[in-house]
Amino acid sequence: MPEIETNGVETYYERRGSGPQVVFVHGAILDHSQWDPQVEALAEDYEVITYDVRGHGRTGGSPVGTYSVGLFAADLRALVDALDLDRPVVCGLSMGGCIAQVYAAAHPGEISGLVLADTFAPELGGRGEWVQRSLLLRATVPFVRLVGYERVERALVWLQRRLHGARVGGDYERVEALRASGPKLTTAEFAKVVRAVAAFHETTVDLAAIAAPTLVLYGEHEPPFVRRHAATFAAGIPNVEVREVPDAGHASNLDNPEFFTAELGAFLDGVRA
User: Fold this and answer.
1) Which burial class, exposed, middle or buried, applies to 67 when counting CB atoms under 10 A from its CB (0-12, 13-18, 19+)?
2) 146 lies in which domain range?
3) Model confidence, pTM
């Protein structure tokens, strides 16, 4: 297995193709295989790097007691350095988008482009958003210890669909299939990852510092607070395009891979040009 030491952990990664470099950062409780549709489509023209974020997949856990999005972003920078990448485009989805924006704002000269998919900025848009992004996430931990994160997440998807419509979760069965095919998180790692995402609103990110061209993608059937953050990115990032992915929920790269990959490919071609 290809592994490399990054910031104190042995990080699993995959590297395919040749050309300008693109690093993909997956969402929470998934792994690098989330990006398989995009890797297959882009590897002929680009060097594509996927990896498993600390706590996930073949990278697995670490003895660090508390995780944060800032720690994950430091891991990403260490991966870029260890693989000797030259100003790659960084593409992150959901939690991966949180990681990508922290990295891009902290190191604006080290990327040539940024893609933020189905994600959100730190700022909270009111009490309702705080309940969804922080309170509910933290509340899952004791239930996960009792019945496992698969059952708890199914309950959360059911709740989101009751609140926001049947299509808000997108093709959740495909997400479940990806999780079933890869290594499972331990309960301890799940708790650290979830608490890191739940505390993201405590992170400071200067969106105006992101100098690279940026593409924001979000699913047509996203939860309302995620759609709201597309406008946050549009207002805060200097050089940004925003695209809605039709017929897609919160994993838009899987729900409508053809549209998502076409928009991503066009953006990458523009950055390369």
Assistant:
1) buried
2) 3-272
3) 0.92
